[in-house]
Each structure stands twice: as structure tokens, then as C-alpha cells.
Design brief:
453 residues, Neutrophil cytosolic factor 2, alpha+beta, 12 helices, superoxide-generating NADPH oxidase activator activity, five-stranded antiparallel sheet, SH3 type barrels, Serine Threonine Protein Phosphatase 5, Tetratricopeptide repeat, elongated, 4 domains, Ubiquitin-like (UB roll)
């Protein structure tokens, strides 16, 4: 299932929940192949609303397997275990949720598409209730006293009432996740689901080819104001101005390399040169590339009357065999530097050519590359280790806030950590290295360290 299909079904299911059709929403969610952690969380919430505790537990298990840092999933699974009166497992999940908070007062999931704030004091409140159910009243009191350190004004009364209940060894009410609150797909992605035609269909106004119906973004033939007043001499002059000989494409051609050109039956291309290997260099739509010559047919252009039937329809027979191309001999060199990359050099290249390619790749002068150590595993693949005298212009950042990775490619760090910049991903995200780990992180979480003089 493609990302767009998943996004579309996710949005449909959330819309069903908004209008109260939980059964239809659950059916759509369950039809999604390979759901992500957020969708699994939504499925668990719907099962929990329908009191289907076994199914809810499995869904939250799946959500946690896909994202072991999703604190709210541990919180919801803890609530599921509590309802099943499995208080030890419930206590374990509440502890994991509190650990995932990493000492913060709360986690606001709004940026991830969930309108919910998970408060540390509420997690500790539920931990205390699980301890009370197990008969550990002293530990229950300790958790509630600890919750006072993380309290907010609107949560204070609930903690005070729970403390009074523990002093009397009476149970108190469980803090539960709000009903019908689910992770929703990114609204910007959803807005792009519907295709928009911004340009409309182009129309040929005039062409030297009779009844030409080709539509594209650039004229393929010389254009005239009125084809009925063009003389034979004008047509000849126009054709002489064209570069190459006009040919009609007979069969669809799908390129396999970057220097080949995609064409479909009916396109008109101009052949610049035909090689001995049956490949032709052509111009089409102001682009140059290679096309098999046996896919083309020479086009004779002449003036025609209004009654002319125009170009004949492309043939329906099978296209000819793709001609073989002569490949140039080259070597693939794998380079170990501060990062690993590969370069391709022609066979028989000198050491200076290889050094020049590597220096351009790592953006360092040739003189700063101290040495290369090579290992040849076969005649066409070589691995080298490259060392530099000095890597200049390093940029460092200091973390203003702690950041916990939400995806495998993210970089986790704590407030005050120093991060070395590797590359700029976009205006909001950077790639860097911290504590021996490499990944991407939000630019808003860090501040650049001024270079030392």
C-alpha cells in the first residue's frame, strides 16, 4: 500500500470517528496494511472505547514495537491492564511512561497530530493507584508526594484528594485518556491528496505538420500565424532553420540511463546524429538525448490542404529489440573519511585524478588530504581510507532544549550538549553528530556557538 493510500484511509477513519461512526472507523483502520505506530495507537483507543480489552492490548503492543519512545502508548496500555485488573503490569507501563517523560512536566503531542498533553503528575497519580491496588500504601503516598513536584494548578485538587484517600487507605479515581481523541494525519499532506490541474490542456494553434494534435509545454515544430498563407518557399526556409532531421516516434521508449530520452508514439523528434550502434542523438521538447533509431521513422513534411488526413496512427505491432550500448570501462572507489561515500573514475586513471575527485567530494583542498590506504577486492571495486590534516570551518551548536528522537533517523540530545553540524537538510532541520551518534534534528532546538578566535 502506498503512502498516499495509507494517508487517505487514515483521514477517512478519523472523519468517521468525528461523526460518531466508530465501527466504520475501526473497519477502515484495520484494512490499512503495515500501519505506523500512530495508527496502531488509534486502533487501540477505538478498541478501548468499545471495551474490547484484548484487542486494545494487542494494538498498543504494536504501537510500542514501532515506536518505543511513545510515552502516551505506554500510558494507554497501562490503563488497559488496569481495567483487566492486571495491576503489576499496569504499574510497569505507567513507570515506563514516566521514564519516557525524561523529567519534563508534560509532553504536548499537538505537533504530532494528537490534541493531548500527557502530564507527569497524572502518570504518577496512576502509578500510586496501581500501588494501592497491590496493597503498597506507603509507595502510593510516595508517588503522590512526588507528583506534587510536577503539579500544575488545574491538577492540584485531584492530587490532594488522592493523598487524603491514601491516608485512609481508600482507593481513588483513575486518570483516563479522553475518548475519541486520536492521532490525525498531517493536514498539509491531506490537502494535497486531491489532484489539481493548474495549467489545463495545451492546444496547437498552428504547425507545419498537417493536423498536428500534439500538446506540450514547448513547440516541437516552427510556428506560423496562419498555415493557409504559408508558401512552399517559407516552409523550406523554416525547415532549414531546424536543427536535425524530423522523425516520427513509432514505439514508446523508456530510458534506462540518464543520457537517454523518454518518448511515446506520435512524438516528433529531430535526429542530430545516428551512430553505428543504431542509437540516435535527438532533440525533443528542447531536450537532447539518445533514442534507438529503429524506434523512429523519417518524416516528410509538406504543405497539405484542409482535406489532408494528417499523420497516420502509430503502428500497433511490438517494438523492436533495444540495441546494445557500448559501456565505458570505469572503477568504483569506496572512500572511508569522516563519512563513507563512493566515486567513479575511468579505468587507468592516475593517483592525481582520484585525489582530485575525493577533494571535490569532501570539499577540502588536495593538500589537506594526507594519505590514502587502498584495498582492492576485485578488479573493478577498490576501498580506500582517506585522512585529512585538518578539517576547517566546523560549525558547532549548543542544545537549548533536550530532544528525544521520534524516528530512527533523528538525533537525540540533552540540554547543553554540543552538536557538530554535518549538513543543512532544509530551513527547519539540520544533520549533525553528538555523543558519537549521527542524525537529523530541529534547528529551533539549538543555537550556534560563535567560533573561537
Amino acid at each position: 500500500m502506498s503512502f498516499l493510500d495509507t494517508l487517505r484511509q487514515w483521514d477517512e477513519a478519523v472523519t468517521c470517528v468525528d461523526r460518531g461512526d466508530l465501527s466504520e472507523a475501526l473497519r477502515i483502520f484495520l484494512s490499512i496494511q503495515d500501519p505506523n505506530s500512530k495508527i496502531c495507537f488509534d486502533i487501540g483507543c477505538l478498541h478501548l472505547l468499545k471495551q474490547e480489552l484484548e484487542a486494545a492490548e494487542k494494538a498498543f503492543d504494536c504501537s510500542i514495537r514501532k515506536d518505543e519512545h511513545l510515552a502516551v502508548a505506554f500510558f494507554q496500555r497501562g490503563i488497559t491492564f488496569y481495567r483487566k485488573e492486571r495491576f503489576e503490569e499496569s504499574l510497569g507501563d505507567f513507570k515506563r511512561a514516566f521514564k519516557a517523560l525524561r523529567g519534563n512536566q508534560l509532553i504536548d503531542y499537538k505537533a504530532l497530530g494528537l490534541q493531548y498533553k500527557l502530564y507527569a503528575c497524572e502518570v504518577l497519580h496512576n502509578m500510586a493507584l496501581s500501588e494501592a491496588q497491590l496493597g503498597n500504601w506507603e509507595k502510593a503516598q510516595e508517588n503522590l508526594v512526588k507528583a506534587l513536584d510536577f503539579k500544575t494548578e488545574n491538577k492540584l485538587n485531584a492530587i490532594d484528594r488522592a493523598l487524603q484517600s491514601t491516608l485512609k487507605q481508600k482507593l481513588f479515581k483513575l486518570v483516563e485518556f479522553p475518548s475519541k481523541v486520536l492521532f490525525k494525519p498531517n493536514k498539509n499532506y491531506v490537502a494535497e491528496l486531491e489532484k489539481k490541474d493548474y495549467l489545463g490542456k495545451a492546444k496547437v494553434v498552428a504547425s507545419v505538420v498537417p493536423q498536428d494534435i500534439f500538446s506540450g509545454f514547448a513547440p516541437l515544430q516552427p510556428q506560423v500565424t496562419d498555415p493557409l498563407i504559408v508558401s512552399c518557399g517559407c516552409v523550406c526556409a523554416l525547415l532549414r532553420a531546424l536543427e536535425g532531421e524530423p522523425h516520427t516516434v513509432l514505439f514508446e521508449f523508456v530510458p534506462e540511463t540518464s543520457d537517454e530520452l523518454a518518448v511515446v508514439p506520435g512524438n516528433i523528434v529531430f535526429v542530430l546524429q545516428k551512430g553505428a550502434d543504431n542509437w540516435a542523438s535527438v532533440v525533443f521538447n528542447e531536450r537532447r538525448g539518445l533514442v534507438p533509431y529503429n524506434y523512429l521513422e523519417r518524416l516528410e513534411i509538406s504543405l497539405a490542404s484542409k482535406q489532408n488526413e494528417g499523420l497516420s496512427a502509430p503502428p500497433t505491432r511490438e517494438p523492436p529489440t533495444r540495441p546494445e550500448r557500448k559501456s565505458e570501462d570505469s572503477l568504483i572507489v569506496k572512500v572511508h573519511f569522516t563519512f563513507t561515500f563512493a566515486v567513479s573514475v575511468p579505468a587507468g586513471s592516475t593517483y592525481a585524478v582520484l585525489i582530485e575527485k575525493i577533494s571535490r567530494k569532501v570539499n577540502l583542498p588536495r593538500s589537506s588530504l594526507r594519505s590514502l590506504t587502498a584495498e582492492a577486492k576485485d578488479l573493478r571495486r577498490i576501498t580506500v581510507w582517506c585522512h585529512a590534516k585538518e578539517v576547517r570551518c566546523e560549525i558547532h551548536f549548543v542544545a537549548l532544549h533536550s530532544y528525544e528522537s521520534l524516528n530512527p533517523e533523528d538525533l537525540s540530545f540533552h540540554q547543553g550538549d554540543t552538536i557538530t553540524l554535518l549538513s543543512l537538510v532544509n530551513q527547519d532541520w539540520l544533520e549533525g553528530q553528538c555523543n558519537g551518534n549521527t542524525g537529523i534534528f530541529p534547528a529551533a532546538f539549538v543555537e550556534e556557538v560563535p567560533p573561537s578566535v
